[in-house]
Design goal:
InterPro entries: WH-like_DNA-bd_sf, WH_DNA-bd_sf. With about 170 residues, the protein is mainly alpha-helical. Helix content is about 65%, strand content about 10%.
Length: about 170
């Protein structure tokens, strides 16, 4: 998925260097849909370059010998790869896998106070995530389907809060 993300960002924004793209992921709150670490992001940039899907258009060394600004753009082959990955991921079903829900499969084997604390933590985190998403929807320069995705994510998070609160009440009995 990270390759699709990188190619899509380069298709949207033209020439960019990886750090700029990572900042866009955060600014646009795309990290609400995909977990991106710096290591995995840069690894995939290198893999896309090696495959010929992106190409270096500028290299700017900095004062730090270990850091440079290498700007990339998507190639014609990269546009084809982007199209193929788009179709591939659009057709995949959402699995909705969640480690916390797997843990809940065994709730009757978990110490009640530990279970209650974990559920409280999930509810708090989901509420914090909802606040961030609500601000992002209002302030971010995101339009079209990206804005719809953020709105959907907010609605799903709100439903999750209700669900976790219900589970917490039932497990407290």
């Amino acid at each position: 998925m990270i390759k699709l993300l990188i190619l899509g960002l380069l298709a949207q924004n033209g020439i960019s260097y990886p750090y700029e793209l990572l900042q866009l992921v955060k600014k646009r709150h795309y990290d609400a849909f995909i977990t991106v670490t710096k290591g995995s992001f840069y690894y995939n940039v290198d893999a896309l370059e090696a495959a010929g899907d992106i190409e270096v258009v500028a290299y700017s060394p900095t004062k730090n010998a270990f850091v440079s600004k290498t700007s990339y753009q998507i190639t014609a082959q990269g546009k084809q790869t982007f199209a193929a990955l788009s179709v591939q991921y659009l057709k995949q079903p959402d699995k909705g896998q969640s480690p916390s829900k797997v843990g809940l499969l065994f709730a009757d084997q978990i110490e009640p106070t530990v279970l209650q604390a974990a559920l409280t933590q999930h509810i708090s985190q989901l509420k914090a995530d909802c606040l961030v998403l609500a601000v992002a929807i209002k302030e971010a320069p995101t339009a079209g389907l990206a804005a719809e995705l953020l709105t959907h994510k907010l609605q799903v998070q709100q439903a999750e809060i209700n669900w976790y609160q219900n589970v917490k009440e039932k497990s407290n009995r």
